[in-house]
Inverse folding.
């Protein structure tokens, strides 16, 4: 074997080793890229879920606030009605008392 043949053979061996290492690195990077894409997809899904939940909570809070305001308004109306009826009862009792005294 001549020195040129040895250099060529060594070069081919090193080139082959480099090709195997490159292929291995490409496989590893491809796998990592797939895992990264899957993690990104899952994170995006979680973000959408969180946004949806936040919107749902906001709507529910508005609905409950509306119910609360309606209930307060109804309570005020009922208190006013009760007060008015109490006044009518007192007036009727006074009239009844006067009528029983005059007879």
């Amino acid at each position: 074997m001549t020195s040129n043949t040895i250099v060529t053979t060594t070069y081919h061996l090193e080139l082959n080793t480099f090709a195997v290492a490159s292929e291995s690195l490409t496989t590893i990077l491809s796998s990592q890229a797939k895992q990264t894409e899957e993690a990104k997809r899952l994170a995006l899904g979680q973000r959408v879920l969180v946004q949806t939940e936040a919107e749902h909570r906001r709507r529910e809070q508005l609905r409950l606030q509306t119910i609360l305001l309606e209930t307060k308004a109804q309570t005020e109306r009922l208190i006013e009605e009760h007060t008015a009826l109490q006044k009518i009862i007192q007036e009727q009792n006074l009239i009844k008392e006067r009528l029983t005294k005059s007879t």
